[in-house]
Amino acid sequence: MRKEITGLIGSQEATFLHVIDSRDEARERENFLYQLRNLYTQLTDRVPTPNVARLVGNNLNFILITEGTNLIATATVVFVETAVLIKACVEDVVVHHNYRKLHLGKVLLDEAIQLARLRRCKYLQLTSKPARPGTSCFYTKAGFELVSIAREGHPEGTNLYRLHL
Questions:
Q1: How does pLDDT run across 18-38, given as a tens digit for each residue?
Q2: Which of 55, 77, 102, 123 is deepest in the core (most CB within 10 A)?
Q3: Could you tell me if 23 and 46 are in contact, meaning their C-beta atoms sit under 8 angstroms apart?
Q4: Nearest to 37 by CA among 52, 46, 51, 47
């Protein structure tokens, strides 16, 4: 399933896409992975080379924002289904540094929330490093509740946020 929405980023036209599936052309997938890897370097120093076959599936959705053919923002939504509930997790939210302060993070979150509601998830959760205080405010303004705080002094610790749907 692919969904395209054309909108504006400032005065520039942009296309919002989500869901890369296994039927996409190999060249498109490789270009997507190359750009995705480059974008992820703005999030973390530890960026493995993604494997399309491993990444693509019914429980994993990429929300992509492109300007022309350039990937400028992304988030991943992972669905987990158990015997009693379906939940969703937002991972790897990143907006290219040249496009920050344009509310693209909100667009990504709104799309993630919509996907989770469509799948009838009980809640949507995400994690964020406490070293990014602006993101904590951003997520709570979006309706997420801070559920768990990272342990003091733990370098890999993250805060857990949850939005009940």
A1: 444 444 555 566 677 777 777
A2: 77
A3: no
A4: 47
Q: What is the pLDDT of residues 69-109, one digit of tens each?
A: 788 898 888 899 899 999 999 988 999 999 888 888 999 99
Would you state the CATH architecture of domain 3-164? 3-Layer(aba) Sandwich (3.40)
Closest CA to 134 of 164, 110, 105, 108: 105
Sheet hosting strand 86-95, strand order edge to edge: 3-9, 12-18, 60-67, 70-81, 86-95, 123-128, 159-164, 145-148
Contact 108, 93 (CB under 8 A): yes
Token duo for residue 155: 């370098």
Domain ranges in the chain? 3-164
Band the pLDDT of 48: cuts 50, 70, 90.
Answer: low
Q: Other C-beta atoms within 10 Å of 50: how many?
A: 15
